[in-house]
Design goal:
The chain is an alpha/beta fold and about 250 residues long. It is built from 6 helices and 14 strands. The strands form 2 sheets. The chain has an 8-stranded mixed sheet, with helices on one face. A hairpin with a 5-residue loop joins β13 and β14. The chain is globular and about 45 Å long. It starts with 7 loop residues before the first helix and ends with a strand. GO terms for molecular function: hydrolase activity.
Length: about 250
């Protein structure tokens, strides 16, 4: 759970390579209004945007891909950020997920020449993505202000989560030299009973209080005010369409 200390050009060079299995390698938002999303995140994080696959758009920071925004294909779908984990073989990982008590929500499918994507859920129902890289390896920049820095799993069964993800992604979490960007938090009675287990994508910011002011100004809201964690100072927010994410200052 240590912070990866690579930065600047060194970090960009590192992240152009293929990520190891179990490493969070991409985040994408499913939104009702992609143009509104571009305005919100463009001002909040300094992202620029370019056409991607189909009707989705790349979010870029200093020219490197850091996320994607896509229109919801069905209005009944949730407005969410999804964290995807790297794998060299999405079908094989899907089988291991099923054998471990999870489920494949969306079977692996090609995304042009970019790679192969899938959606899965753990035994408690927390949804996450799988990404088998083709020409798109994942984050071009991470751990820097305005980019992905951490994925936190909120779960009611921490022992079960430890066994499930520890078995699937052992090397990424516990292997020699591993510096995972992935933790988990126990959902206690302070959370609403109806809140399902879920992943929360964290984006790094330089000044958390300034970033919260920007969220409010742009039409988002603060779900959980700043609190201290072992990996930094965090606040949970929603964008102007209801997608939840976290801001992390470290």
């Amino acid at each position: 759970m240590a912070e990866n200390r690579a930065s600047g050009n060194e970090e960009a060079e590192e992240t152009r390579g293929v990520y190891g299995e179990g490493v969070p390698c991409w985040v994408d938002a499913q939104l009702a209004d992609v143009e509104a999303g571009k305005r919100f995140y463009g001002e909040l994080f300094g992202w620029t945007f370019a056409p991607a696959y189909g009707s989705s758009v790349w979010a870029r920071l200093t020219g490197e891909p850091v996320a994607s925004l896509a229109p919801k294909i069905d209005g009944r779908m949730p407005t969410v950020w999804t964290v995807s984990f790297a794998t060299p073989d999405a079908r094989a990982l899907g089988r291991r997920i099923t054998e471990a008590g999870g489920q494949v929500v969306m079977a692996p499918f090609p995304v042009g020449d970019l790679g192969v994507a899938a959606l899965a859920a753990d035994p408690e129902g927390a949804v996450f993505g799988l990404w088998q890289a083709g020409s798109h390896h994942g984050f071009g920049r991470r751990h820097e202000p305005g980019t992905f820095v951490w994925a936190e799993l909120y779960t009611r069964d921490t022992a079960g989560a430890n066994a499930f993800y520890g078995g699937l992604f052992h090397d990424a979490l516990f292997g020699e030299g591993a510096e995972p960007d992935f933790g988990r938090a126990h959902v206690t009675e302070v959370f609403p009973a109806e809140m399902p287990p879920h992943f929360l994508a964290h984006f790094r910011v330089t000044d958390l209080d300034d970033a919260l002011g920007a969220v409010r100004r742009l039409g988002g809201r603060v779900q959980a005010p700043p609190f201290e964690t072992s990996y930094g100072r965090v606040a949970v927010v929603t964008d102007n369409q209801g997608a939840s994410f976290a801001l992390l200052q470290r």
